[in-house]
Amino acid sequence: MSTFHMKPLVFFLSSLLVLWAYGDDVSLEWISDGISANLGYYRPIKTELSAVKPARVTKLPENLLNPLFGNIALGPKESPVEAIILLDEPENGPARLWIDSNGNGDLTDDPPAKWAESGSKNKDGATTHWKGGGSLPVAYGKEQLLLGIKFYRFNKNDPERPQFKNTLFYYRDFGYLGNMPIAGKSFRAALIDDSSRGDFRPGGDVALLIDLNNNGRFERQGESFDPGKPFNIAGTTYEIAGLTARGSPFQLVKSSKTAEETPVLPVLETGSKPVAFEEKSTKGQNISFPSDYKGKIVLLDFWATWCGPCRAELPNIVKAYEEFHSRGFEVLGVSLDSEESMKKLSWFTAENRMPWPQICDGKGWKAKLARLYGVQGIPACWLIDGDSGLIVAMESELRGAVLRQTIERCLASLGKPTAINPAADAAKPDKAPVTQPEPAINPSAGALNPSKAPAAKPAKEDPIVAKARKLAITGKLATVVNFNTMRKYPKPAPVTLAAASTQPLPGREIATRAANAYIRAGWIYLCAKCNCCHVKLAGAYAIAGDTVVTAFHVMESPETIKQSEAYPVVVRGDDEIIPIVHVLAADEAMDAIILRVAAGDLPPLALSDGARVGDAAYCFSDPRGARGYFSSGIINRFYTRPGGSPDNPADQRFNVSVDWAPGSSGAAVLDGCANIIGHVARIQSILGDKKNNDLEEQHDAAAPAIMTLHEAVPAKGVLKIIEKMNSNAARTR
Fold first, then answer.
1. Backbone phi, then psi, for 200, in 5-degree steps?
2. CB 650: neighbour CB atoms within 10 A?
3. Count of other CB atoms within 10 angstroms of residue 679
4. What is the pTM of this model?
5. Measured between alpha carbons, how far is residue 532 from residues 419, 459, 565, 568 in Å?
6. Across 438-532, where does the E strand assignment appear?
7. Could you report how far apart the first and last alpha carbons of the chain are, in Å?
8. How far apart are alpha carbons 448 and 164 in whole angstroms?
9. Which of 59, 239, 393, 544 is buried deepest, with most CB atoms within 10 A?
């Protein structure tokens, strides 16, 4: 080989070695099933069904009435695993699904697949679709991984979807999730394959997702990267090296190539500031947002004339604008129309009674403001207070009939004019006379229509509700959407625990310590049924000055909640509201959730896993609203939940002969040294030879109970969560 040819080769190899030498190793955790819930989206793949049995099928289940067959392929493209799918859809009776996961052609010896009605019904009461899933083993060299797949199928008799009569859809429920080091910092990351093949090499639909703005979500626009191309983060261009069909581990290396820097998307949530901008409207008006809207509240609405869901929401926005514009409500539209479709923007807005200004640069999804706000789909809108410059509502709070309620609430809580101007309304001949709106949550606002007879005196409201409203205006309280997102995507952080005590204490001392450390957690919310505010709080306990533990079910949002006014809170004493900052960990199976709160002086108690059957047990809680109830007893037994595993801490429980009732959930159970040995989970009543499974929901059951079991979550499980959380937090530093 000549010197001329050797030099480029040597240069290439040396460059490659340099890249590998200075790259950061990335090892993400394999998720065999369940990753779709972490990502919030999926890309469906079609497989066509046929009544013809494939030649590879050697044995079928019995009693098939209407079998249909499909095929999917998973794994490295050089050696994919092909699996036969069998779907039996009798005209009368439940449908069933089988997956030949071991690939031997025998559809009777595989793990059972899940398949059930979705629960959604059309206007005629028929099921709209079925859904289910299963797993397939795939070999990557000498290693084998289980790949979870979700399936769904539309009703084959649906007249609106005749094209899908013989179609089964599936999508990936597998992938990688974890933390990725970039420039000395750690970011939540995921490696996914939207083609649902299980080959993670660059190309196709493989994507590396990086939560650059640290908001707990992966945005498909701005946080999704092609691992086969260089990308720029914070001014440095990187490439992915060593990516195999298996996926993780791989390397993140600095590249000699150049790429446009990826802007970090703003975290747009209630209480945060929107991105300020200056633009011209389609009519040439200079708009400075949000500074031009002092003294107003403004709906920033991203939409397009071609967008069906946007057009469906327009009547609600128009109606709200006509009702509340004279009281300080404005709308600013940002159209994602292209150069071609924006030609009809002027007549479209006139035709649909949309007098507010519109901004449109004709670039569609690549519109400057859409990229600035990280808009993933439309309609997308935020409600902003022009005085504070803060977002006061977003997402589901600004949809449908809820929009009107949200605007009315925000106008009142922000001190904007709320009195109706009869003269102004009478001047609009095309508008029906304004009737008295439904009563405001705050009864002190007074009657809106003085000509009406006085309304009945409302029930006295808990003073803590008013405090919650004031805090909410400042943006310090999480909304329903924010909190549910935090609960779904916890952010682990280190927690330093107090050492457990071995010094026995008298009962009165345990009671004093329990009372001093007792806090409450739960919800303050507006009820969709009675339109009144409720305070639904249960027990909780501090494990550090700023860290609280309670039962997972305590922090599940109530069924009748109105998202326009609902706040998850921690309360100290009678009425000191402490905002929740982050969810550090959440385990529904264990019925435990760990919260980081905006405090630093909560009196923590130590956690102990040394409790045994027969030891003394104590609990301080508020059973059925009886504040400050202290009870003692003993530990009766430790056991594994029915259907659970004795090796899984999430499945472990214990019973105590201590009194509690609904309202006690989440309260600490203490030992004789005032250490926390667990927390209240639920009550089970034994009714003869039958069990009433949950008196938290059925406390009015008439049948007499032979015995009542008080179930608690052991502290050992909580300690396992904290151990894992501290380990994850250490890796992210």
1. -95, 10
2. 18
3. 28
4. 0.52
5. 21, 9, 10, 17
6. 518-527
7. 49
8. 53
9. 393
